[in-house]
Design goal:
mainly beta, about 0% helix, about 55% strand
Length: about 120
């Protein structure tokens, strides 16, 4: 068991975490430390070694993100065990975002990161 697993997540410029949107494997999860970001720390609790966990949440893309390629990077930590760094990028263009079909009508964008808990 990997006790007290944390995920440190750094949002790109202009991206803001939406309160109440965090999910762990589809179930509601407490909001992270760090408010709207950019540095977030999610507490996942204990994870069984070898199990896969999916953390998802929504962000608002603001004016500060226009005309950039935003890279979201996150890493899970449990005691001395550290995961590989997961990252995803999105190119934000003027007046639109490249992955238009992913947003909902409120301008919210889903983010999902996946980890497999250490097997050693």
């Amino acid at each position: 068991m990997l006790a007290n697993t944390l995920v440190n997540d750094r949002l790109p410029a202009g991206f803001v975490y939406v309160s109440g949107s965090a999910r762990l494997n589809g179930a509601p999860l407490a909001d992270p430390a760090g408010g709207g970001g950019p540095a977030l720390r999610f507490s996942l609790g204990g994870l069984v070694k070898g199990a896969q966990a999916t953390l998802s949440y929504r962000v608002r893309v603001g004016v500060g993100a226009q005309g950039t390629t935003g890279v979201n990077a996150a890493q899970a930590v449990s005691g001395g065990v550290v995961s590989n760094r997961a990252s995803a990028s999105v190119q934000v263009k003027r007046r639109s975002v490249c992955c238009r079909g992913l947003s909902d009508r409120q301008g919210l964008w889903p983010i999902a990161m996946q980890w497999r808990a250490g097997s050693g």
